[in-house]
Known about the structure:
Strand order of the largest sheet: 7-6-5-4-3-2-1-8
Largest sheet: 8 strands, parallel
Structural class: alpha/beta
Helix content: 40-55%
Strand content: 5-15%
Oligomer: single chain
Distance between the termini: 44 Å
Amino acid sequence: MSWISKVRVNTHAVLKRAQHIQGQKIPKKQWQAAWLLKAVTCIDLTTLAGDDTPSNVHRLCLKAIQPVRHDLLRAVDMHNKGVTTAAVCVYPSRVADAVKSLKAANSSLPVASVATGFPAGQTPLETRLQEVRLAVADGAAEIDIVINRTLAITGEWEALYDEIREFREACGDAHMKTILAIGELGTFTNVYKASLVAMMAGSDFIKTSTGKESVNATYPVAIVMVRAIRDYFLCTGHKVGFKPAGGIRTAQESLVWLSLIKEELGNDWLCPLLFRLGASSLLADIERQIYHHVTGQYAAYHELPMA
């Protein structure tokens, strides 16, 4: 608590740093293609819609196993390198469908499930804990929990810590990603404090947003969160992952995110174990850019398999 009470964030410096990262030149030609394939391997391919069915979850799983068309990968000599997305992310009720589809395809890709009253987190604690347990029982290897924003906004950091500890226990061996819902926390200082509390409580990852808020993954907030990760690592020696999610739609944006992680946290974090991109429509744009790199022209969307 003494560490958390001392936290102050310099807003002007954060905004200036974010502006610098966005203004950097991005790689071109084969270097861009290489970075885009790196981005693909860090994507949590996600479907969180009210009309999700076993059939579109099945299609999503097949897309996760073969995210880029085989002939395109062959053209850049990456067809035998096992390029897949990092995971498939679904609602708890669809976890069993995803696990079944991946098993049938003989794939070891992990299934991630959102839980704890996603996206608002406004259900009773016991209900949220039970949701985590059921998702794990159905085969989820990763759980994306949402924090109780009320506790963060009102500064009840110890109560928030206790809740996240309970979620950590309910997850068992499953990886736990903690969603801070930064669009609803109000200030950078709150974001930093919530990041610290989530890491102290045993989170394997901290994640920006649910994708359902009005403000999702933004670069200034990411700077604050990754600086919290860096400070926590320097203090404890423990590496915690980072996952931006919500509103990441273009290949260009994915390159900026990779650049931000490389500069702020270093190459160790540039792998699926410590960095994920939460996205549903991003993969389609990355595949179009790789198609353009290989053929010199842009594909119509109907030419590429649906994500």
